Amino acid sequence: MKPSALFIIRGDPRVSHRPAEAIRIAAGVGTWKKTDITVYLHGPAVLALSEFVDELVDEDNYTRYLPILGEFGRPIYVQAGEPCLEAIEPATLPYEAIDEHRLAELAAAHSNVIYF
Amino acid sequence: MLHGKKLGILISTHPNQPGFHHGLGVAEAALAEGVDVYLYCIDDAVKGVGDARLQALKQKGVKLYACAYGAQRRNLPLSDLAIFAGLTVVSDLMAGTDRFISFN
Q1: Above 80 in pLDDT, residue B1?
Q2: In B1-104, where do the E strands start and end?
């Protein structure tokens, strides 16, 4: 059975490079199609889906690698109720807002959970 | 029981962070149990490839990889301290080890 990895990406992309790096890694690993990749954005990390990424650290990672994540055939999951969600419309990729219960189900369904 | 099993470890934290050393601790314990350990340093962890404890683990048999892109971005020279590689290796570790864990 093909392994699967859930990337839980936290941090504020306006001040930290780590969300951008996590997006790069998720896309770069998923491209090889040996592992099914799912991405969940928590807190301000949802800003990665904003059309305007020029104020984010390492903005190139978002323009270059987010479209690859969109090709994996599943939505990007985001934290339901996160205030920053209002700032990302229109989002660059389809997303689904989920609560913690659903996140727990997702984590249980993946062979790897990777926190960034 | 664990002998011959394969463990993949991804570390992304700076070497002065606890996560880096927790990762090395797991690698050390696994190695002592006869596990084949594959350790990949990415992001800020590339600054730690020369760490004495990590190099000692490499001498004992840990297969040590580091992110070439991360090193390049931080102006770190590519050296024989680790095998500098791309994300294809991370993909292979996720798919090809019995257990894959990360310290971020």
Answers
A1: no
A2: 6-11, 36-41, 63-67, 83-85, 99-103
